[in-house]
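go over this:
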Amino acid sequence: MTTGHRITVERSTDHVRVAHGGQVLADSTRPLVLRETGYPARYYLPPEDVRTDLLRPSGTQTHCPFKGTASYWSLPDGPEDAVWAYPEPKEDVAEIKDHFCFYETEVVDG
């Protein structure tokens, strides 16, 4: 890794919910929290806790030298490329494999 750049992945018990247009797209009490130098902490949610049937693959892919290649999905009637996952992440962040990350998440208290 580049000097000064750091990524950590931790299991969390935070209750994370994602809703769009009044519809719940994801609800999880077992997210992973990825912290990366220079970026806000991001919740990666297991696929079992995501309504993948409501996501539309967008065909967009991006590459991160630290995490690997991400694939993107769009929300129903919503923003393009609002959700991403790493099908084959780099070894240092292998735990996030196939977990979904949303730009907009809500942490639900207790």
